[in-house]
Amino acid sequence: MALTEKSLVNCTLKYLDKTFQTQRVKQLPSLTAWLSMTADMSDFERQALLHYQQLLDFNVHDWNEYELDTHFIGPLFGLVNFSTLQFNHFSQRELDAVVDDTRLFGRVDGMVASGSREPEQPYFAIQEYKRLTDPNGDPAGQCLAAMLAWQELNNGAFPLYGCYVVGDSWRFLTLEGRHYATSPGYSATSDDLFDIFRILKALKQIVTERVGGLSPA
Questions:
Q1: Do the domain assignments include residue 184?
Q2: How far apart are the first and last CA of the chain?
Q3: Separation CA 24–CA 113 (nearest Å)
Q4: Total-model pTM
């Protein structure tokens, strides 16, 4: 049977549910545990977050996705600091995998994966840095498609984590088998920003445990 090909950028939740029998459920143990994890925050981190929040609040209606990434999302991930000898945060890396009879391919906006120079085993995808007004495509579908492809490459051995961003709104999701669950929206222009940062720090704890190494301070 000939393979069907689908670019990540053209994937929607409707397409994925129909093609791969994915199903959204109200909650999954992996998402519930992730969102409830605690993490310390230093005074320096708090002040940096307030600085980035001020930039976001001033520009959120005008930034394109690259400006949003450069001036807000990237610095936020840098503040968490996923750069270790065991894993790292990568951007715009190619993904190509066959899921069932469909080839999923394209670039993932951001990922956290094992490996320090090149991504090896992925754990987390962030997709897509959309403007608040008139976003194109389905960032949730693009994120889930990347997670499905990774699941195939990793033989479905563990839950996969993800996040998609539209303007100042962040939603987190996990995938277990063909079931996925999505968090409520977190607004980065409100006090939710501290929860977003906590959840990203919790992700670093999860990845550290998965990789089995200790990250440098």
A1: yes
A2: 51
A3: 24
A4: 0.92
